Amino acid sequence: MVAPNGSLSPSSSRDLPKAGRWPWFGLFAVLFLVGTEVMAFFTSVPDRDMGHLQKIMYVHVPAAWMTMLCFFVVLIYSVKFLWKKDENDDLLAASAAEVGACFNALTLVLGMLWGKPTWGVWWTWDARLTSTLVLFLIFVGYLAVRAFVDEPQRRGQWSAAVGILGAINVPVVYMSVRWWRTLHQIQSSPSTVDPWYVINLRLGSFAFLFLMIYFIRRRYEAARLVRAAEMASQEAALGGQ
Fold first, then answer.
1. What mean pLDDT comes out for the span 71-99?
2. How many structural domains is the chain composed of?
3. CB atoms within 10 A of CB 121
4. C-alpha–C-alpha distance, residues 231 and 133, integer Å
5. CA within 20 to 30 Å of 57's CA: 35, 165, 201, 236, which one?
């Protein structure tokens, strides 16, 4: 919220988030993820060309999708923050950025693990790989801005600008394999792959979605508590003068 003097003000202690049922949701998300991955491993037949290496896609692809979805959350709440100046929107965008950076890093690492036996190299400046790396660097830049800017309003504005810039890069990542035909394969469709691939991939995507929601929520709760503690410390210091 905005204080009378125009600066951002924290929520009162009674408005701080409660854990509630979120730990149970997190447990459900983890168990659902484990179940879907075990199911995918045992029900998916080996690919004709890649063999069992194909099964890495049940983690790699959902992680990539969640990366893009996280940046969509960053975009929405960054725009909302610039509009309404509510610090909670800034904290939620930052939470999504942190989670998105983790999914982005996982996507890159799994892509490299897949690329070595498939292409013979750990890394190549393929259009999809390069644009995904750029997305990761934008995530890192977003978090770096937040780490080096102390004043809440300026930090929120600057990081929101970086978040919006990163969201613009998401369509580039998705369309890169169609705009520039390089090593990375184009997106498959349900009609071109084995039905079990489709089922397992969709279940895995829901599992990653639940995990993403849980991580963002808990990181947001932690960010609210840290911000409240900072404000309480500042008020105590001012009261002691």
1. 95
2. 1
3. 10
4. 36
5. 165
The answer as to whether 81 is a domain residue is yes
Closest CA to 104 of 74, 145, 148: 74
Residue 115 lies in a domain: yes
What is the band of 6 on the pLDDT scale with cuts at 50, 70, 90?
A: very low
For residue 167, give its domain range: 22-187+197-224
Q: Is 50 helix (H, G, I), strand (E, B) or coil?
A: coil
Q: Judge whether 156 lies within some domain.
A: yes
- Dihedral angle at the C-alpha atoms of 46, 50, 53, 54, nearest 10 degrees? -70
Q: Is residue 102 part of a domain?
A: yes
pLDDT tens profile 30-66: 999 999 999 988 887 777 767 777 888 889 999 999 9
Neighbours of 69 (CB within 10 A): 20
Closest C-alpha among 100, 161, 154, 157 to residue 132: 100
Q: State the helix-helix crossing angle for 195-239 and 87-119, rounded to 10 degrees.
A: 140
| Phi/psi at 51 (5° precision) | 65, -140
